[in-house]
Amino acid sequence: MAEVGACGECRALTRVVLSVVLCLSGVSCINPFAPGWDLSPATSTCDPSTVEGVFQCFQASYTFRDTTVYGQLIAHDFVFIYRNYDLGIDVTWGRDDEMRSTFGLFQNAQRLDLIWNNIVSSSAESTSVNIVRGFNLTLVFNPSDIERVTGQANITLARARVTDPWRIVRWRDESEY
Predict the structure, then answer these.
(1) Would you state the pLDDT for residue 103?
(2) Hey, which of 48, 53, 70, 119 would disulfide with 165, CB 3.0 to 4.6 Å?
(3) What percentage of the chain exceeds 70 in pLDDT?
(4) Regions of the chain short of the pLDDT cut 70
(5) pTM (predicted TM-score)
(6) Contact partners, residue 66, CB within 8 Å, separation at least 6
(7) Which domains, and CATH codes, for the chain?
(8) Quick check: helix, strand or coil at residue 161?
(9) Which residues are paired to 152 by β-bridges?
C-alpha cells in the first residue's frame, strides 16, 4: 500500500508542476512554436519597371497566390495563347479570362512553385520586349494531387513610355504536357 500512496503523491506533484509551468507560460505569452510578428518594413525585389522585375513579380504572385500582384502585370489588351493538342488548334483568351483562370488556380492550389529558367531568346526595343524563357511549375492541389509542368513561356512585354512599368501583353504558353 505504501507504494500506491507514493505513486499517488508523484502524480499529484506532477500535476502541480505541470500547472505551474502552464500558468507561467500563459503569463509570459511566449509560444516557442509561433514566432512573433515581423514589424520591419517589407523589402522586395519585385519591380515591374525592369524586365527581370516582371518575372520576379510573376513568381511572387504565384508563390503567394496573389492576384493583386499578378493583375498589375497583365495589360488591358492582354492575349494568352496555348495549343490544344487534342483538337489541333490554338486557343486564346483575353485579360478577363486570364484573371478568372488565375484566380481559380490560386484558390484551388495549396502551393505553387514557379521557377524561371534560362532565357532562350529575347529581342528588345525601348517600349517592347519579347522573351522566350524556360520554366518549371509545380502545382500542389493536395498531398496526393501534384502536377508538374515544364516548358517555355513566350512573353511579350510593352510599356507606353520608358518610365512606365512593363506589362505582359502577350503570352504564348509552350508547355510540355
Answers:
(1) 98
(2) 48
(3) 74
(4) 1-45, 177
(5) 0.74
(6) 60, 106
(7) 51-176 (3.10.450.50)
(8) coil
(9) 134, 174
